[in-house]
Specification:
Helix content: 25-40%
Largest sheet: 6 strands, parallel
Number of strands: 6
Number of helices: 5
Distance between the termini: 35 Å
Radius of gyration: 13 Å
Low-confidence stretches: none
Strand content: 15-25%
Mean pLDDT: 92
Order of helices and strands: EHEHEHEHEHE
Shape: globular
């Protein structure tokens, strides 16, 4: 697959989701507020943008409006839902993939913009 994948939040959930997606020759851009996460993303070959995924300007800086796929993998489901809806609004053609922590939220994410939803349990 060729195209831009924007990953919002670069932690365990994002890495789990990315393992299940075809990313051959895809450009990956990571948007996160955590410098350690951004350093890890850069070490894995991603372009990085420091910012909050809830901020539309940060999503635009990561070029979510042009992405073929947007992966939302933030620690809080409410934040993830907001980011999913904003990403869908910015780019109606993108495939939006969300990692949710609470399985009860899976259907809600699907109804409000996610094309694919992965359940990622919180680590203790």
């Amino acid at each position: 697959m060729i195209g831009l994948t924007v990953v919002v939040g670069y932690g365990d959930a994002a890495l789990d989701v990315l393992r299940h997606l075809p990313l051959d020759r895809a450009e990956v851009a990571v948007l996160d507020v955590d410098d350690v996460a951004l350093t890890g993303a850069m070490a894995n070959g991603a372009r990085v943008v420091r910012g909050d995924g809830r901020d539309m300007c940060a999503l635009q800086q990561a070029e979510a409006q042009f992405a073929k796929r947007v992966v939302v993998a933030v620690p809080d489901d409410l934040d993830g839902l907001l980011i999913t809806m904003v990403a869908r609004g910015l780019n109606p053609a993108a495939t939006v993939v969300a990692a949710v922590r609470d399985p009860a939220n899976q259907e809600l994410f699907g109804k409000l913009g996610a094309d694919e939803v992965f359940v990622h349990a919180r680590s203790s």
